[in-house]
Write a structure and sequence with these properties.
Strand order of the largest sheet: 1-2-3-4-5-6
Number of helices: 3
Oligomer: single chain
Strand content: 25-35%
Number of strands: 6
Distance between the termini: 35 Å
Number of domains: 1
Shape: globular
Length: 131
């Protein structure tokens, strides 16, 4: 599969999903004007990636790292973050996925939101404090 790369803007996060390297990252601020138009193609791409996992699960491949480096997101974006995590859980059935949740050391709310998403998704998160 080809890499999915979207440059961040003032209101939408950067996306860098590189299946060849096993690195998936979403970063920045997530306040897209049209949350459906922004996130649906990303979820579709992830779904297609998850579909190829059973066929590639027997091959020698590195683990996957999925990093959330969001400094802020709105409730509309949260719905799609949850959808992403549902797909990540499917991928984790075939290849180990390391989920990283980055947060500013002074942003307790972002940390707590990550903890809630960890419980909701059933995935183990690594919490990385930024200074």
């Amino acid at each position: 599969m080809n890499q999915l790369y979207l440059e961040s803007t003032k209101y939408s996060p950067g996306i860098n999903f590189d299946p060849g390297a096993g690195r998936f990252e979403i970063s920045g601020v997530s306040l897209p004007e049209d949350v459906v138009a922004f996130y649906e193609p990303i979820i579709d791409w992830l779904d297609k990636y998850a579909e190829v996992m059973p066929a590639s699960s027997g091959k020698e491949q590195q683990d996957i790292r999925f990093a959330f480096k969001l400094s802020y997101y709105n409730s509309g974006s949260l719905r799609y973050i949850i959808s992403m995590l549902e797909v990540v859980r499917k991928i984790n059935n075939y290849r180990p996925v390391k989920v990283e949740w980055f947060y500013d050391k002074d942003d307790i709310l972002l940390f707590e939101n990550g903890k809630e998403l960890e419980v909701l998704s059933g995935l183990k998160f690594e919490f990385i404090e930024l200074y």
